[in-house]
Amino acid sequence: MSGLLAARGHRLTDERDEADLWLLNSCTVKNPAEDHFRNMVEEGLIRGKKVVAAGCVSQGKPSSDYLKGLSIIGVKQIDRVVEVVEETLQGNSVRLLGGTRKDPGVPLDMPKVRRNPLIEILAINSGCLNRCTYCKTKFARGDLVSYPPDQIVARAKQSFAEGVVEIWLTSEDTGAYGRDIDTTLPELLWQLVDVIPDGCRLRLGMTNPPYMMDHLDEIARVLVHPRVYAFLHVPVQSGSNAVLRDMRREYNVDDFSRVVSILRRKVPGISIATDIICGFPTETEEDFEETLALCRKYNFPTLFINQFFPRPGTPAARMKRLPTQEVKRRSRLLSQFFQSYSPFDNRVGQKYTVLVTETAHDDKHYVGHNQFYEQVLVPRDVSLMGKLVDVEIVSTCKFSMTGKPVNTSVPQRPTAVGPLRKGQVSGMRRRSKPVANAVSWWYRLSVLVLALAIGIRIIQVVYMQFFSHSGSRKDSVDTEGGLQHGGTQAFSAGENIF
Fold first, then answer.
1. Closest-CA residue to 71 (of 83, 35, 60)
2. N or C: fewer beta carbons within 10 Å in the chain?
3. Which residues in the chain come in under a pLDDT of 50?
4. Judging by beta carbons within 10 Å of its beta carbon (0-12, 13-18, 19+), is residue 326 exposed, middle or buried?
5. What one-character-per-residue DSSP string does 264-303 give?
6. What's residue 211's pLDDT?
């Protein structure tokens, strides 16, 4: 959306006060996310800002009281964001919420503004095949719709041509890709691997267990490729088969264990992240103990722990909830276990090649990732950003390692071109030498045209003055003045958008 608006001429800003309009995206996965979205809507209105609501919350429940009178853009209509924003700036309320389109709804070749010019977040499909009893995303996103492989590969090629060094594949369920268009995720991945420059990396997105089991061997072969991170996010949600059935997750604990065990055997060193929901309404104490046992079995390096929140309109919201204090107790116990071990013990002195792409939260380090997508902090040195850096680990903590660059190694940029400027629109012509020459050519041409126009105008004035003094055609000046008031209206698209 930001890319389309920027390409239109609107100025994007991170400063709320200076914006004329707030474009607020939303997530419906958890109650706190929706609460934050509602608070932002109310804050914008209090500040007298124009507000446009987007994302899954406004798509799934546009009748909410706090959305009344607001413009809303649906999850499959964001290619029309310019239309909605400009109507809203003119004082109109527009709602585009159609949900019957059989395509993902957002062309991959649309202009975009990357939050990080080094990283391309690339959607490969929208919607999902599941009907989990606790999840509301299905209401907003609908059934699975996959992008054709050629469109995804074309977007990847364009990204690398713009200086991107890392691509993140994303969707509601990466593993389900292609089931609606007679292809598979491994087939897509091999096509992407072929176009990834040496030194650049591909990171797979979240995938549910059922859709991985048919392709485990092939996925393992992809994950050991040097241009693909040996990393996978596979949410299990519970270690109890009874709870998984009540969640309608379409797999059991043995299925999940098979995925993890096979990948760990065939992809040495792989990082596997998972999710747990604590306090699902039907979860007994025995069920929770089974979840703890599963986590102890694998000591996941990344564990996302969530307390159950009922999402309105879902089957789980009609179930009798567990006491809040009990849900918090189980969440606390699981968190304590997760904090009891470190995945990076005994790593001091080891050497890795890391791809540096981000700034750490402490603003004192840059963040790189090794082949297993493990986080390695390096000194904040601009000469390292966007490059492959050989490091030696000097310290570790629960969530990361700290490395110092090896003096005998020179950081290498994986691509021949640098990234776009922050805020620059992807898909627009880059300012390389050929483009600079073209810009210079157009500049010279425009100057020539302007000079000709001025010359013609001078001739017109002299001509008019000659006839004015000769007393002929006395109405010529009035005719000219009338022409000066004509012409077309130009729309100014310079409003500030937050």
1. 83
2. C
3. 100, 430-441, 470-493
4. middle
5. HHHSTT-EEEEEEEE--TT--HHHHHHHHHHHHHH--SEE
6. 87
* Sequence-separated (6 or more) residues with CB below 8 Å from residue 8: 82, 493
pLDDT of residue 21: 95
Q: Which CATH superfamily is domain 119-339 in?
A: tm_1862 like domain (3.80.30.20)
User: How confident is the model at residue 408, as a pLDDT?
Assistant: 76
**What digits encode the pLDDT tens for the residues 105-136?**
678 888 888 999 999 999 999 888 989 999 98
pLDDT for the residue numbered 492? 35
Contacts of 115 (CB under 8 A, 6+ apart): none
Let me know the angle formed at the C-alpha of 115 by 23 and 360, rounded to the nearest 5 degrees: 125
Query: What number does CATH give the domain 2-96?
Result: 3.40.50.12160
Which run of H or of E encompasses 262?
Answer: helix 253-266
Q: Which residues on neighbouring strands pair with residue 355, listed in sequence order? A: 369, 388
C-alpha closest to that of 169 among 189, 187, 184: 189
Say how far apart CA 145 and CA 165 lie, in whole Å.
27
Distance of CA 467 to the CA centre of its chain: 66
Helices (H) and strands (E) in the chain, counts: 14, 19
Measured CA distances, 384 to 162, 388, 413, 474 (Å): 18, 8, 9, 73
**What's the token pair of residue 297?**
């079995």
Provide the pLDDT for residue 469.
Answer: 52
Per-residue pLDDT tens for 201-252?
999 999 999 988 989 999 999 999 999 999 999 999 999 999 999 999 999 9
